[in-house]
Amino acid sequence: MYSAESVANAFLDLARREGKFLTNMQLQKLVYIAHGYCLAKLHEPLFYNNIHAFEWGPVIPNLYKTLSHYGAEEVKDHIPTNESPIAEDSTEMEIIREVWQDYGDFSGLELSALTHRKGTPWSETWRTNQFGVISDELIAEHYRQDLYERFANQP
Question: Where are the chain's structural domains?
Answer without folding.
Answer: 4-152
